[in-house]
Amino acid sequence: MGVKLKKGLLKRCLLGLLVVYLGWCLMPVSDAVRVEDQAGLSEVQKRELVKCARELDAFDASMKWKLWRESFFTPWRKGCFVIFVRGTPEQVTADAGFYGGPLYAGGISFTARWVDGKWIARRENAMWIS
């Protein structure tokens, strides 16, 4: 009787782990953008910078599905869209794109100036990828 109980408990535990794994893996990659700010921007400036990066096509929609696929096979590292910002609150240099792990990232680099409540941006290069 003890062996059957142990097997049944083991099956339930494994099934529970499978459900948790599938739930975590099938969770979609969000359109939200994580801003890694080293320039000391306000919340309004961060929101406007995300809009500016979207206008420059920094966040490719096809990458969302590639990030989802990557997170399915490696659920311990969830991919996301990200902007790395450095500079001052009046003028920043930003790398915007996707991040799927230490060896899987890409996007565009641009500089932007804060003028009259909006970012005026100039794209520096077409693409960076690691």
Biggest sheet layout:
5 strands, mixed
**Helix percentage range:** 25-40%
N- to C-terminal separation? 56 Å
Strand content: 25-35%
Put simply, the count of helices is: 3
Order of helices and strands: HEHHEEEE
- Would you count the extended β strands for me? 5
Shape: elongated
Q: What's the average pLDDT?
A: 82
Coarse structural class: alpha+beta
Tell me the strand order in the biggest sheet: 1-2-3-4-5
Which residues form runs of ≥5 with pLDDT under 50? none
Taking all Cα atoms into account, the compactness measure Rg is: 21 Å
Number of domains: 1
Describe this structure as you would to a colleague.
It is a single chain. The chain has 130 residues and is of the alpha+beta class. The protein has one domain (2-129). Helix content is 38%, strand content 35%. The protein contains three helices and five strands, in the order αβααββββ. It has helices at residues 2-25, 43-55, 61-73, and strands at 33-37, 80-87, 91-99, 105-115, 118-129. It has a five-stranded mixed β-sheet with strand order 1-2-3-4-5. A hairpin with a 5-residue loop joins β3 (91-99) and β4. The chain is elongated and about 75 Å long. The protein starts with a helix and ends with a strand. The model has no long low-confidence stretch (mean pLDDT 82).
